[in-house]
Structure formats: C-alpha cells, structure tokens
Amino acid sequence: MEMRFGKLLRLLVLAGLLALPWASVPGVTMAGPASAEDIPDDWWAQVQEDIRQSEYHITWQEHSALPGLDAAYQAPNRAQNLRFYFTGDGIRVIPRTGDAAWELGMSVRDAGPAELVAQARRIAYQRAAFAETFANTEAGLQHAVALGDATAFDLVLNGNLTPHIAADGASVEFLTAAGVPVLRYGDFSAGQNVSVQLSQPDATHLRFTFHVSGITFHALLTALPNTADWNVESDQADAQLGFSVAGAGDVNGDGFSDVLVGAPTYDGGADNEGRVYAYYGAAGGLSTGAAWTQEIDLAGAQFGAAVASAGDVNNDGYADVIIGAPNYANGQAQEGAAFVYHGSASGLSATANWQYESDKAGAHFGAAVSNAGYAHSSDYTGVLIGAPEFNETLANQGKAFVFYGNTSGLNFAPDWSNAGDQTSARFGASVSCAGDVDSDGYQDILIGAPGYDDNTTPDAGAAFIYHGSAGGIGAVPGWQVLGNSANAKLGASVSLAGDVNGNGYGDVIVGAPGTNSNAGAAYVYLGASAGLTTTVGWSITGAISNTQLGADVALAGDVDGDGYADVLVGAPGFTDGETGEGEAQLYSGSASGLSAAATWTHSPNQAGAQFGAAVAGAGDVNGDGFGDVLIGAPGYSHPETNEGGAFAFYGGVKALSQTPNWTILSARAMNTAGDVNGDGYSDVIVGDPLYDTAFADAGRIFIYLGSANGLATTAITTRDGESIYARFGYAVSTAGDVDGDGDDEILVGAPYHTNEEGEEGRAYVYFGHPNGLEEHPRWYAEGNQDSAWMGRSVACAGDVNGDGYSDVLVGAPGYNDGRAFIWLGNVQVRIGTGAGDPSNANWTAQPDLAGASLGGAVAGAGDVNGDGYSDVLVGAPGYSDGQVAEGAAFLYLGSSGAMSTAPVWQQVEINQVNAFYGNAVSSAGDVNGDGFSDFLVGAEWFNNGQTQEGAVFVYHGSATTINTTPERILEMNDPSAHFGTAASTAGDLNGDGYADVVVGAPDYSEELVDCGAAFVYYGSSAGLGATPDWSVRGPDSNYGLGQVVGAAGDVNGDGLNDLIVGNGNRANVYYGNNGSMSLRPRQLQPTGAAYLTPLGRTNAPGSVLLNLNGQTPLGHERLKLEWQVTPLGQPFGGPGTTSGASDAWTASGATFAQTITGLASSTAYHWRVRLRYRAGNPLNRPTSRWIHMPWSGWLETDFQTAPGALSVSATNDSPTALGSATTLTATANATYVTYAWDFGDSATGSGKVVTHTYAAAGTYTATVTAGNGVSTAVASTYVFVGDEPIAGLALANDSPTAAGQATHFTATVTAGGGITYTWDFDDGSPLFVSDADNTVEHVYTTPGNYVATVTARNLFGAVSATSPVTITDAPVTGLSAANDSPTTLGQPTAFTATITGGGNVSYAWAFGDGTSGSGANATHTYGAVGTYTAIVTASNGVNSLTATTPVAITDVPATGLSATNDSPTALGQPTAFAATVTGGSNVSYAWDFGDSQTGSGANPTHTYAAGGVYLATVTASNGTNALQATTCVTVETPISGLQAANDSPVPVGQPVDFAATVAGGDNVAYTWSFGDGATGSGANLSHAYVEQGFYTAIVTATNQVSQLSASTRVTITEVPLAGLAAVNDSPTPLDDATTFTATVAAGSGAVYTWAFGDGATGSGAVVQHVYPAVGDYTATVTATNSVNSLTVSTQVTITGGTPVSGVLAFNDGPTVLGSATTLSATVESGSGVTYTWAFGDGASFIPQTWPDSGKVVTHTYPAVGTYTATVTATNRAGQTSATTAVLVVDAPIAGLAAHNDSPTGLGAATTLSAAVTAGSNISFAWDLGDGQSASGATVTHTYLDVGVYTATVTATNSINFATATTTVTIVPVQHIFLPLVMRQ
Description:
mainly beta
C-alpha cells in the first residue's frame, strides 16, 4: 500500500518534524513508482464493484445542498439518480446530479418525534407509534411503516411535485409542474391477504387504509427512468394522439426545429375526423401548448394518420409540412387525401396550400407521407405519398406518388408514380426520403410493401429504392430487399438512417414487425462507394412474440453530437410488467456502425399505451445543437382512455465514462502541453519528479502527442532533471506560444534544483517543434536564494500585455516569504532578457506578511475583466492575518504597460486556522457564458461542518468590480476529504458552450478510506451547480484519486475538451463525448494556411482562416459553413461580432474553410462555427451545434489579429487659462501602441493621455507620434492659451409692454473681454447676434409671458443669463349676440357672439333657463317650451362687455299614434288599453270605448257591461297637432255547467253516441278524448271501440276566456263466439313439430286451449307440438271468451324422423346498446330440431323440448363490442353448430338538454346539469362560457364576475355527439341589514 507524499508531508508538519512555509503540496504525489506486476488484471472491475457497493451508505452531513436544511443524514443513489435527506420531519428527495429542479418531502402524519439510527444503507426512525425504516438500494428507497394498533396512516407531502394515483390504486406518480412524471411510490404490500387501499384526501396527503391492525406496510420509492423532457396529451378519449409523429423542420425560421403530432380519431365536431398539432421549438424546448392545430371537419377522414415534414417545396427557406387523411371521402369512400401547409415567418399557414385526392375508392391515399427530398432539383423538395390499398390492376397492390415542388408550391398532378406488382402487396404502406444513397447529388426515395410475397413466402414484405436524378425519379427500383420469413412484413416501416458509420454515404433502415410471431425486427443496409448494399449491415430482433419491434423506424438525427447518425426503433407491443406498454429504442452510430445494444430505451409503464407506435427525429427543438427524438403512444391513457400521448426526449453529449480512455503510470504531475508540434491536436505533459536518472530524484517529463485517435500510448519525448533531488517535473504546464511560431512551448518546474544555492529551484521552457520538443531548454530561471523553491508552481500566464505572445508565470513560495514572477514572451528574445532570475523578471508579486508562501500556487486567470489582456492568479496558502495559515489568493490584471504589483482583487479573510485557502488556484473558464473568465480558489483544509473537508470557492469575472464574496462554494461534506487539493477548469466537456470545472479530493472516503475522488461541475447560464454532474472514485483505500486534476485540451480533435484525473502515481484521461466525434475545428493563418496556436497572432491584419470537417449524420448532403467571430469580452452576437455563412451549398465530406475578413487589427477574438443544412433536409433541423476550439478552459482568447496600418488622431481640452494645465489625448486604431508628444513649446511627453502647462498665452501646435513596433503614425492638435473667462453676466428689460410695441434689453458682465452676444427672445424668432453690442430691442406680436436669454462668448467659453418679459392684450369692442330660433323642443339652438376688436377674448353664456356655456359659437338644447333671453359676456385681461338675444322653443308634433288592448276579456273583467306615439312632446290622450263610455290617459282600463265586439278610439294631441287611432275589443261570457253522456253498454265494433251540454258561455267549442287513444270534436258525435273493456271519455269545452272538462264512463262488451274449427299439418315426421291452427267464424276475445292426445297441452290460436312416438292421435281445442265457449277435435298422424345438418346462424345487428338483438338459425335438413344458444357474453339460451324451440331468440347484450354467438341444432339423430358475429354499438345520443340553477349570487356555486333522452356510454364536456371548462353530467362552477353566460355542453359517445346550451345568470350579492333589537 502506497503512502502519498502530500499527505505524509502534512502529517510531518503538524507533528512539528518538518518546517515548511507552506504545508500542502497540491497536484503532486511523491510515492515511488509502481510496476505493472503490482496491478491485477481485473483491478478496474474490482474498483467499480467496491464503489458500487459503498456509495449507497447513509452518512451524516453538516451542510446540505438544500436551501433551509443545515445538518441531516443523506445518501446518494446512483442507480436511481436520486439523493435522499433524512430529517426528524421525514425524508426529502432531489435529483442526485445538477441543481434541484424538483423536490419531494414525505412524512407520516402525527407520528411524533423519532430517534434516527443509521447503519450502512439503512436508517430507522425509532418512535412509539408509526416506527419507520428506510433502506437505500439500487432498486430504490425501500420504506417500511409499522402501524401498531392503527389501521390507517397519512403521508404528508411537500415540495413542488404533484401526486397522481394510478387507476388501479397500486402506485402514485409524482409529476413536475410541466406534467412530467419523475418519481413513483409503489410496490405496496402489508402481508398475506391484507389489502392496501390508497386514497388522496387533499393535495398534500396520501391515505393508506387496511382492514386489520398490527401490520407493517412496505413500499418502494423509485425514479421514473428516462423521464421525457416534454409530453402532451389529447384530453379526449380514443383520440389516439401520437398515432403519428414527425419532425416538422423549422417552419417559422426562428432557428429551432418544430414538431407535428397526429390524433387521427379526434372528434372536433365530426366523428373520427382527426386533428394535427404543431408545437414550435424554442431555447427552452417545445411549447407546452400547440402553436398550430388543423382539422378538416369530415367524419371518418382520420386526418393526421400520417404526418411529416414536406421539406421546402417552394424554396422560400421555411420548412413545410404534409398531412395524410387516408379515410378521406369526397366522391369515393376512403379514397384518402393529403394536404400540404407552407411555413413562413409567422408559422404554418391556416389553410392548406395544396391538396390532392386519389379518386380511387378504398385506396387510403395518404396512409403514408414523407418529404421526397431533393430528388429532382437542388432547389425544391418534393413530397412522397403512399396509397397502400390502391387498386390499379390488382387488388390492394398499392401505389406511391411523388409531386415535385416549384416556386409556388407543389405541382397539382403526380410527377412520378409506381404501383406494386402483386395482389395485396400494399406498396406504399410506408414511404421515406432515402437521402442520397448513390452520392449523385440527388436524393432518392424509399418505399415499403409489407404484403409482398417472396415466391412461396406470404407477406414476407419488401422495400424498394428509386433513384433521383436531374430528369426526375427512375421508373424502376435501383435497389430492393425482400423479407426472409412468412408474415415478416418487411417494409411495414422504412426510413433513411443517415450515415451511421461516418463513411460519407447514407444508410437506410427497414422494419419487419411481423418477424417471429410478431416479435419483430429492424434491419440497416449500409451505403458505400458502390451504392447501397442488399446485405444486412446491422439488425435487431424482438425478444418475445407480439413485441412488434420495427413497427416504426426513424432517423433520430445526431442525438449525442458526435457526427454520426443514430436511429430509433419502435416496439409498441413491448411488455415488461405492463402488457402492450410499448418501448422506443435508440441505437447510436459510430465509426464502427450502430451499437449492438440500445444506448437508450424508454417505456411508459402503462398497459396498452403502445409507446413507440410512432417514432421520429424531432430535429433540434431547443437549439442546443443535439438531435432530439419524438415518440408517440396512441394508446396512452391519462386519464382519458386511449387519449394518446406524444413524448420528446432532448439529446445531449455523452456522459464521461467511468473507465478512462487513456492511462499512464508514474504520473505525479500532469497537464496539457498545448500543441507542441503544431498539428492541431492538444498534447499532454507528464511529470515524474522522483524519477532517478544519473541523479537520485532528478525527475523526468514525458510528452504524449494527441491525434485523431487520441493520445499516443508511448511518449514521443522525455527530458530529465539536472541535479540530485531536483524533482524536475514537480510542476508542469503549457507555456503557450511564447515566440509566435505556431508551436506551443512547455514549462517545467524543478523546485529543489541546486546550483549555487541549495534548493533554489529552477523553471525551464522547452520550445515546441513539428517533431515534438527541442532537445534543450532555450530558457530557464533560477531562484538565486536558498530554499526559494523556484518552479514549485508554474503556469502559462496567457498574454498579459497583449503583444500576441504567451507569457510565463512561475511561483517561488520560499523566496522572501513567497514570490510570483512573470517573464514576457517575445519573438526576438524569446522570454524576457536571456536566462531568468528574480532580478530580470518583467513582473513580480510579493506578500505583505511573512510566511505567506505566496506563489505556492499560480495560474493564468484568463481575461477576468474583458479588457483584452490576460490576468493571473497567485495563491498564498500560508498567509496568516489573525489566523495561522488561513491562506489568501490574489488577482492581478494584465495591461498594455507594466502590470501593477498591487492586486486588483484579494481574498485574505477566510478567518479559519489552517484552511490553506489558495493552495490551488485556477481559471474556471467562462462558466456562465457572460464573456468574462471566472476563477477558482481551493482551501483543502477548510472546515464547514466536517473537519478538513475542504472547499473550492468560485468567483465570476466582471468588467467592473470583482466580488470577494464567492458566487458558489463547492463542498463534499466528507471529513478529511481535502476537497480542493486540486481544482481546475475542465474546458467544455459537454459541448454546451460553457466551461466546466473539476475538483480533486484525494482523501475522500466512501466506504474505502482515503480512496479519493474527482468531481466535475458543468457550467450553465446560471454558473456552476451545487452538486457534481460527474464523479469518479479511487479503487482502493489510500488510493488518493484527485491529487491531480485538469484539462487536457482537445487531444483527439473532436471539438470537446478532455479531462485529466490522477492520484499522483497513475494519471487518467477521459475523452469528452467518449472521444466519438471527428469534426476537428481549426484556426489557421489567413496566408499560408499554417496552424494558428491558441493566443497566436495572425500573419495578416483583420483576418483569420477557420476550418471544420464537413461530416454530417446524413452522409451525402449539401451544406454551408456558418461562423461567429467576436471580440474578447463580448458574448457571441454582441457588439463587434462578425458572422456569416459561405455563399454556396457544398457537398458534405469536404473540409470547409472560410477566411474571415473585416476584423479589427491588434484585437483579441474568440470564435465558433457550425454547419447549416438546407431547409428541406431530412434531419428536420436548420443547423448543427456550435463548435469551438476547446482549449484548456482558461484561454478565452482564441487568436489575436496582426496590427494593421497604424493611424492616430490628437485632441485637447483648450482653450486653457494661462497657468492652468491642458490635457492632450491621442487615439489610435490599434490596441498596443506607444505615444511620444511634442507640445510645440520645446517641451515633450509620452502616454496616451498627457497634461502640460504652457508658460505664455498663445496658439500652439502639439504633435504626437504613435508606434506599435510595426509602423508609426503622426497627428497634430492646436492648443489655445488665453487671458480671462467671462463672469457676472446679467440681463434686464423694460416690460410689461403691449403687443406690437418695442421692448428694450441690456446685458452686463463683471469680468471678461472679447465678448460677443447671442439673443433668444423666446417667441420663435431667429437667434439674433449683436456681436459686441450689449443693448437691443425686440417687438412681440402676441401677448404672453416670455423668458429672454442672452449668451456671452469668448475664447474660454460661453455663459448665459435670462430675464422674464410680460406682453399684454388689446381691449374688447363691438360685442353682439344672435341665435337660430324658433327651435323645436329637444333640438339644439345655435348661438353666435361677434366682436369688432380685442385679443385673447373668452365668451360666457347664460341661456335663460339656469344653464350656461362658453365660446364664441355655442349650442344649447332647452328642456321646455317657452321664450327665453340668452346673455353673452366677452372678456379678456383688459375689459369685458355683455349682449342679449331672444330665444323661442316650440312643441314637437305628435307622430305614429297606435292603440292596443288585452282582449278577449271575460264579461265583468276590466280591459286594459294602451296608446303610444313615435314622436311628440306634451301629448295628451282622450278615449271613446265604443259603448258610449270615455276615458283619458295613455293606459286606461274599462269594464264593459255586456258581451260583444267593440271599436275603441283614442285621440292624441298637443299644442302643435292631433292624431286618432282605433282598436277592436272582444268581450265573452265564461263557460259554466258542462256535462257529458253516452249510450253504452255497446258490443265491440258498434258505435257509441256521445253528447256534451253547458249551462252558460259564448262561442263554445268541444273536443273529446275517448279513452282508447282516439279523439273527436263537437257537442254530439259517435265513436266505435275495437276492444272489449271499460273506458273513460273526456270532453273539454273552450272559448276565448274560459275552459272546462267533464267525463263519462263507457262499457264495451265481447261478441259471442261461433263457428270454431281446428286443423293440423300432419302427417309429421317423428321429432318434427306438428303445427295446429284454431279459428272462429264470429266472436271476439277468444282464448284457445289444446289437449294433444298424448297427455300434453298447449295454448294459442296457432301452436306446435313434438310427439314422442309414431302413431295416430286426437287433439282437441276449446275457444272461450267472456260470453261463451266452444270445443272441436282434429286427427294427427306421426311418421319416422330425419338427422339434422347444414345449420346456419344469423342476427339482425348491429344493435344499439340496450336493445335486443334477434338471432335466428336454419338447418338444411333434419326434423324435430331444437336450438341451444351461447351468446358470447356468458349468457345462454336453453330450449324447450318442442321442435324449432330456440330457432329465433332475442338477447340484450350488456356492453358495446363484438360478440361471437354460437347455436347448436339438436334432434334425436344428432347435432351440429354454427356461429354468427354480433356487433353491439352505443345508442345514439338524442334529446340532449342543459339546465342550471341560476340566477346565482356572485361567489356562490352554480350547478349545471345535462340530460339525454337516449344514448349510452356518454361523456359530457362543458364550456362554461367564462373561459373555463369541466366534465361530467352534473358540474358545479363559481363564476368570478356578474353577468350572463352561455354554457355549452357537448355529449359524446362512439356513435355521435350533440351539443346544448343553457344561460347562466350571475347577480350581485345583496346584503340585507337587519335592525338591532334591544334585549330586555
């Protein structure tokens, strides 16, 4: 077992056995080398098993990651990706990785306090009642509750998840706010035969009830795997949303992919019409609500059974979509149709831009639709449509059609079509663009025919490819494959697969879901230079029957961003616990092809969901550059049965492997070397400071070169230390490109090197070379002081002075309490000035306290403040300022001149003894994407709840002040873990554009003591998360993993950073995205195309050359390169960004090169590139992800442009008073410039901004000379030096003045000479300049108040003064008034006032009726007739006048007189009259009632003395006119004394006479109801009854004013029987029925009874009887009614029988649910047959013994469905059976009515109800009229506002739907106040 040097060193220091200024040794271990023999072959497998077993233990944590939760027990669960916290209040659950986007809390209600006891994976809540136990296992969190005497308990829920109880009550799912299920609480048990009843009393409780006590309840809490990032449901039963899904492309041009989802059996007004939804992408993913929906309002059309992108049919740059409706009927049943909708900036068109029907009945045109790609043109896509049941010459042969695009859309006739050549081939059942499989520049099409027969193999299936060309699509297939087994149905699904192996050729995938009894299969056929192979290149088969794997297949796109296509396979019949739940499977592409096993699967855990029935690549819906996938589940129920669902899962980079991609031993120190050989791949440097050369512990370094295959396994270069114990390689780093030759240099520290001083230390720079490193260092620096330890830490400083050359940073923590030094790179003298030592360093940092160990850690910080200069970090872990070794860290900013030795930022007050803050420092890169570099500081012995747990402090960069409060403190809460011993940027590991960080904790203990670990935290727009996103543990105790961590750069050129993790002996490299990308982004010199190193300077001003490998997941495709180049410190797209795309579409496979021009010279930039796809591409996404150069993370500057032609300008702030300083400023067009000044008075100066004081007044020419080492430029500026400024300016005037008169102004000053005056009089007149004249006059034309301003100017500037001015008005004269009366009452009268003179006059009117008005012209409407005098007053500020005018107002004439009354009226009752006019004022009314009586008023009443008809007259009049009108009045006597009579009894059939009489009444009418359903009218009438019995006849007497009814009893007797006769149809064969018939010649109501002569009897006029034996019989019949009876006989002969055969069964279905179905049977032969029925629903019919019994039966089925009814026919000779299928359907809905109990007071609930008179299985959906909805036959709803609402209810079942409305009235609540009553 090894003992790490760092830990040993710390122990020695603490024991006082070793004195060091800084006790920690970050990043390095000093143990001896291990040999390969020491490591067992299966060491890594042992490691992984040890880790797996240990990481589920429950441990105490002082500070949790949860807000508001301090100390608690916690446990991670890697298998479930959950983290559990156990508190006294219950448990809390969050995701294990990333920020806690959701949280669930659970506790037992009223359980009381508990003692928590944790041991390994288990924790017990010990309490008297409801004791609990939790166990953390890979399967989930096991939960047990002991109930004791209780029979129920409640779980209290908190957090932000919503519970959803499963339909069977066996589990609970917890959903996020977006409706995504993330947790499941289930697997309930409580002992044998103990049932568990689950309910939910409210939103925050779950209740578990049991029928016994004394039990222990068990449950399991698990994560729901592969939770969808997005999902939608139809919310309508049987809509089958998700039956089809597709990527739509970018339909609105916003840069995000959009998707389509079909629900073909959706009812939106027509049964099974179908609906399609479009959801638009955005940065946050898909919209939660549909952005676009479409229906076609045709019952049964199943619109949306197929959906697809149509590509870009009109080449407008927007993706279009195509939708199939295979059952569409417009002249032909189920002919089918397809519809195309165009994309635009506003999204998809509201109506179809193109539509086509097949005009062939049953063709199902549109059952499959697809983009046909660029099959005929490079500009327009076409569409491909299948009609699998199209009959051209053969039944169901199928046919496919292609329509080409053009500028206006699609052609309206097929441009290509082809039909299957076999009956039932179903050619076109699936269709797809195949991509360009033959690489001719035209895309091809792929068609499936699942019913195709291969010779004697029925339904083997087939798939065909037809090649595109300039002349269109070929007439014959260029490629085809056949299924290899019967019923395989190959071609049931087809799709292009993209380029799954990266060979540049497209591949295809074909599904065969019928293979192996519907287990299913999918096959991939690979493209090659010779074309698409017919040999299967990859396949997958279903494991069990009915899985239906391959029911749908699709190109998933590039889900993990590695440049290889991935594919999706659907298996909707998949069963894993839930029958038919379905599954979708993703297989990832790579250089070796598709993965053998699925890299991702998902199933919904819901029976019958059919998840995977439709699968599709969704494109890139959230714009993160990774392909997303879309899955349909048409049988999904949540809660509506078969409502269907669609689910999206977002792609992302592959997680880092737990197994390193590269490993090396003897690696005490390791870092990126940059690119030492200039090949564009990062290399790594490994240091072994204990390596023995000619000297013990001299040390050695190793260089491993990167390549497209990753790091070499053998070092290309080694270099050795030069003295004993030098420990060369103790610290290693890239030095950047210090000489600008395009190759990076390396920096090596040997801190214990001894030359003239003991352990003075040395740092070396070795220069890069195309073959690796130069043999000898060109530069080194020594400490020149005993124990200086120069080189204890080393780093590339970046470019601190912006000269385009990298600089080096070296720490010497033993040099005079610690120092850090910078030597500048330079093309001429390389680094600094010759060999380095502290005296010639270009910059030195030193501490202000003794023993600080400053320089113990150093790092380039990147550009923290975005000024274009690199900054540096220096740690001082021994710094003591109140607490011993609390530590400190310092940030120093770069600049064009000398760097300041004072830090711009420092953190020294950690205030904790021995925290060793600053033991590790590093740039973090830009973790939050704001354009500023962020940085890290480690404190490996920091205590925060756990002793020496350690921490890393994260600080964000900023253009202004950098906060000393960290943005984030990272901890692991593990005692003595020393988290933060090493901390570093990790670069961008996951390709999301944000830098990530890695932290080492070498003494981390999780089951294995001091095994160590490394943790990665991903950056984001919010910065770093609180919990790690990836981690790896050491395999053994004391392994110490995490002693070394860092960024390796991009060693394999895949565009992602790679990660270093080591333990000081073994170093591992983990490749970003598992090293599976091959895009190779590069920056090159714009001239010569040489590789341009990071931070390098271009060899031409204003330009750079960018490269990207044009690999695409599609294989052969046409692409453009897009780029963004932005100045350092600006985000992409910010100010100064240069962006664009290449001009022409170029074939994939090439290296895309683009010279970017127009950049500013001498400016630092960073950049990114991506590939743009054509709008109609099959990936359905506009672009690839953004790709950038993944340097080592701290390197914000990618390159710097060369200086251009220098220009400069000069300015100054003169004129200046004599004796005062003048400021002069120079501005150049470059960043790194020197300035030399000649002030024009023989004095000189230097700097961008200078000041100078001139000795004498005058004008001077100052000249500046600017230089940047490349060129110089000169500029001049004039400087004015003068005498005295102006002072004491004042202004006066002689107002007030009348308008039109002159006003005089005078300006005075107390000091100043050479003055000119400018005047502003504030009345809009032009400015007036009077030069030196200080007195002026001005005439104002308009009265008012003004502010005049004078401005005095001389050489020193200008001053102003103001003075108020008052101008008065002219007086009012000559006022007169007039009006336009006489005026009719109610009409306005117009008034006018005039004057002969005056200004600013206002007018006030008094109209003579108490009202007033204003204005020269006024109107007024008088309220009464009369004569008035109006008075007007005119006034201004000078005087006022009055005038009068007379006004006459007359009545309005009466018009439109009408008269009405409410007769007919009963005699003696009053009649009400009404008179109305349409116009008139002051109208009066006089009445003549027509009976010599009169009245008055608009609404009088009058009672007439006698009945009759009268004519009433009304006269309306006012002072203007009179009118007359009449109205007719009817008065009647009410009916009285009604009686009814008849002459019964009467025999049946004889007429009965009826009579009705009244005692009084006028105009009486009579109606009769005879009691047998018949009616009649009249006072006297007759009626004949057809049946004997007693009846009640009712007569109703009516006139216009009354109604009475009376009844009479009627008796009808039978007719006597006569003439009885009986016959039969014998002779009859034995076992056949003999039929008997009895008749009477006369009589009614006869009842017949039979005696058959064999002891049997029967009844009825016609009967059948089966005799038991051959022979002759006498049968008798008796007929009886209520009057008499008769008897006769008939002779019967029975002969021998015949066997039964040829039975057939029939029914009269389909039958409406609730109605009886009639079933019947016939036999071809047989006698004496009886029929037994089994109805198929468990019910049966057992016949009686007589022949033909059961031949016709009826049965009412209990539910809708299809039943198989079986009949068995039997006679004495045998039996036989037959079946018939019975279809039972829902009863149609009829008589829907809606009601409510309003009016309802505001705030009270209104009850609404719906009822039908007929219908079954009905669901009711309510639109409540206020934007809310509800469901159910009866609902309650509380309206929020007073008003009248129309509520609409829709009743729906499988047959039809109906709607009804009801009006709801909501009224205000009236508060009633009762008087107080005093109690005595």
